[in-house]
Amino acid sequence: MKQSSSSSSKIAAEMFYHQGSWALAYLVIVFLIHLVIGITNSSARQEDFFSITYSSTKGFMLVIGIISAFGFLSYYVRNGFTRKDFFTGAALAALLLSLAFPVVVGPISMLLRALNGMGEDSTVLQQFGGSWLIALASYGIQIFVFYLVGWMIGSAFYKYNWIYGLGFIAIGIVLIGILDVLWQFELASLWENFLPPVSLDVSLPVSFAGSAGFIILGLTLIRLLTRRVTIKL
Amino acid sequence: MNLDIQFDQVSVNYGDVEAVRDVSFQLDGGKIYGLLGRNGAGKTSLLSVLASFREPSSGKVTVGGEPPFENAKIMREISFMYDVDYKDESDKVKEGIEAVARYRPRFDKEFAYELARKFNLPIDKPVKELSKGMQSAFNVTIGLASRSPVTIMDEVYLGMDAPARETFYRELLEEQERHPRTFILSTHLVSEMDYLFEEVIIIHQGRFILKDDYESLTSRGVSVTGPAPKVDEFIQGMKVLNVQQLGHTKSVMVYGELSESSRSAAHRAGLELGPISLQDLFIHLTGEGYTT
User: What are the structural domains, with CATH classification, of chain B?
Assistant: First the structure.
């Protein structure tokens, strides 16, 4: 048991290091883009750094979640780790990464805002009643779920053929859609074309509880997909 | 740590295709085994079950009495080296060695770097930029230096040139002297590697054919050499595996053991008797038309 926990923490530390360095590179790029747009496009009203990062990190986490299902799983099993150790280690690494993003992005965003002379609140921040704490918590939770959705889709493609993969993409879209209702309505404009308009006033405890449910569901599906999966040569 | 390996009626199916069918045999710990089979015979499928890369479709594998699948204690003691696709491996050779040193409990880093030197591996180059032969040398380096009690090398020499393969074979034998373990070398380069094997397992079309020690296997047949007419006369009615002729001298490999009287008859006729090569036996047992 002790050996197993040390194996998974080894995997967690290494994956956090790897993915953390990609995350850093990604943040630098987002920051530079933000800077360049700010300089060249002074007339139009510009999205603030936090709002840009808030939505684009989800895509980033989705992609590295998919990658973790492919490269990392094969690598660790090839090196004598169990699928279970990989599962625990990778989940832990994703959790650390989802904590690290708000911890890094939060202060930078606040600093940028202070430098801009405390102008208008960030668009995303306004949705959370100006509370950085809740905004950052929602950020961390959402990017964690996006990572899990990517990991789940990647695992389905790894284990089955593309038809099953597409099925899991569908499950992923549903999960992300509901998550969006719980937190932000960022995608509302998308599904309002197909569905009658809903005006759900989701309270904060419901958002947190719903997200917790999603995280458990996502982790369970991933574990079921990878528990006895054949490693590709 | 000697981990005996037992395959018990193991089958591996891919959809309707039976890659491995009902294979049973046992490997005692601490020996070098040659696993021989033609392309598609099921070698890699069988080995990937042993390495816990997959579960058998039916049957059971045990290592040290326990099923290896998802068994942390066993899995970390089994190294499976194969032709890994390194096209996305941006880590340098050195980082690759350091990483595996963290994973494998018996890894000898010093030995790994010594092997890297012997193979002329550029340790500061990303693994994905190495040539095919160099990537194979990297695999061999990791495989030998891991000192795993069960070390599987599946066609691990691909792309290595002759001197590099020689280095590999020599280092493997020296390692076995220093730190005996179970090596399973899967290959079809039989003539080149036969001297490495203590025991040989042959599989064909997914079926187990035989497992025997090298000596008794090569005594299952005889090579008869001498003047062509006398040789032809002597081998009447015998199962011929291979014929070579140089001028008037003919050398014929026949399958089956000779009785004492046949031996003395051969001697009287001035014929020379010798063991057959594993390669010839392998070709005979797995050749075209031979079905299980």
Answer: 5-216 (3.40.50.300), 221-275 (3.30.70.260)
